[in-house]
């Protein structure tokens, strides 16, 4: 049975389980189990610390894993990165005390930088010809400058508020990360087939994300204008209504432009507009 390694608790745990659930893979009691079976799919989940996932997948203990790209890069894991998953977005950045005057990377020459990502940092410094001392710290890296352990930090940033509240400023964005699906490089043919099915389902889920299904009634005179307003995978679906001269028009729209489109459609005479959540789009 194909096994997928997932973070047992932490930032990626819930969204990993939610993503699997949204593609029809529901793990049985993942909060309390270390190894859990899916209820309706031939797959089992191995719930572990995120740090261990790259190694678990590269060694083949699990064929698949969901983990931050930052962890894959830091562990230099020999795995396939199958696809990005659209959550857990963050970056690893260099940050320095906000009172410092920063004019470029040479600021870091000879400085001490605290981080939990020494491999990614060492590579970056080498590429840029900077010699600095890397202080490896696990956890609460942001307090290192105030504690006198380091001059600067190299840490995960998302909103940036942790830096601000520790009197630091972000000066270099070095590594962009998000949750990714990773796979063992020597999967069996059988496991590859399951992976193909999972990727197919993830694609349809990602395509439907941020999209809404829109349907409305329109007088015949407004049809041409409405079709210009509404994009569609081919063209909008048009169905005649029982009352003569009226049509029902259906289309998929991006949530970001939903209200603009609704306003424009109302202005040309659309009535009874329904906005419906989309579950999947199979292209
Ligand atoms: O226990 P386990 O080892 O499994 O978990 P963990 O504590 O090592 O990791 P966890 O759950 O904190 O994060 C898991 C993954 O989420 C990371 O490897 C990243 O890929 C991703 N991620 C996304 C983040 C963040 N956003 C994030 N903001 N990981 C950590 N942070 C921390 C960061 O370290 C800093 O302390 O949040 C703080 C910064 O946040 P802002 O919003 O103040 O900038
Ligand atoms: Zn971790």
Describe the structure.
A six-stranded mixed sheet has the order 2-3-1-4-11-5. A five-stranded mixed sheet has the order 8-7-9-6-10. A four-stranded antiparallel sheet has the order 13-14-12-15, covered by helices on one side. Helices cover 26% and strands 32% of the residues. It has 283 residues and is of the alpha/beta class. α4 links the parallel β7 (112-115) and β8. It has eight helices and 15 strands. The two termini are 29 Å apart. Bound molecules: phosphoribosyl ATP (PRT) and zinc ion. Residues 7, 10-12, 49-51, 68, 70-71, 88, 90, 155-162, 177 line the site of phosphoribosyl ATP (PRT).
What's the topology here?
Layout: E1 2-7, H1 13-22, E2 35-37, E3 43-48, H2 53-58, E4 64-68, H3 69-74, E5 80-84, E6 90-97, E7 112-115, H4 118-127, E8 133-136, E9 152-157, H5 161-165, E10 168-177, E11 179-183, H6 189-208, E12 211-219, H7 223-229, E13 237-240, E14 246-254, H8 258-267, E15 271-277
Parallel strand pairs: 1-3, 1-4, 7-8, 7-9
Antiparallel strand pairs: 2-3, 4-11, 5-11, 6-9, 6-10, 12-14, 12-15, 13-14
Bound molecules: phosphoribosyl ATP and zinc ion (ZN).
Q: What is this structure, in a nutshell?
A:
With 283 residues, this protein is α/β, with parallel strands linked by helices. 26% of the residues lie in helices and 32% in strands.
């Amino acid at each position: 049975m194909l096994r997928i390694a997932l973070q047992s608790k932490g930032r990626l745990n819930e969204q990993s389980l939610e993503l699997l659930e949204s593609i029809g893979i529901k793990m049985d009691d993942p909060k309390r189990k270390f190894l859990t079976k899916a209820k309706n799919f031939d797959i089992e989940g191995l719930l572990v610390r995120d740090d261990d996932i790259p190694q678990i997948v590269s060694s083949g203990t699990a064929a698949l894993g969901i983990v931050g790209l930052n962890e894959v890069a830091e562990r230099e894991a020999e795995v396939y990165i199958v696809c990005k998953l659209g959550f857990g977005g963050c970056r690893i950045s260099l940050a320095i005390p906000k009172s410092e005057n920063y004019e470029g990377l040479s600021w870091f020459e000879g400085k001490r930088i605290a981080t939990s990502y020494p491999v990614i940092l060492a590579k970056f410094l080498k590429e840029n010809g900077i010699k600095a001392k890397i202080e490896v710290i696990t956890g609460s890296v942001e307090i290192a400058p105030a504690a006198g352990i380091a001059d600067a930090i190299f840490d995960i940033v998302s909103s940036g508020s942790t830096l601000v509240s520790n009197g630091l400023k972000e000066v270099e964005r070095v590594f962009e990360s998000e949750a990714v699906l990773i796979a063992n490089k020597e999967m069996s043919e059988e496991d590859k087939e399951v992976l193909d099915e999972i990727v197919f389902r993830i694609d349809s889920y990602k395509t439907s994300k941020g999209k809404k299904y829109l349907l409305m009634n329109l007088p015949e005179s407004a049809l041409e204008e409405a079709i210009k307003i509404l994009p569609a995978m081919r063209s909008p679906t048009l169905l005649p209504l029982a009352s003569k001269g009226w049509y029902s028009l259906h289309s998929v729209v991006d949530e970001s432009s939903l209200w603009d489109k609704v306003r424009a459609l109302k202005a040309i005479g659309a009535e009874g507009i329904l906005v419906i959540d989309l579950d999947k789009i199979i292209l």
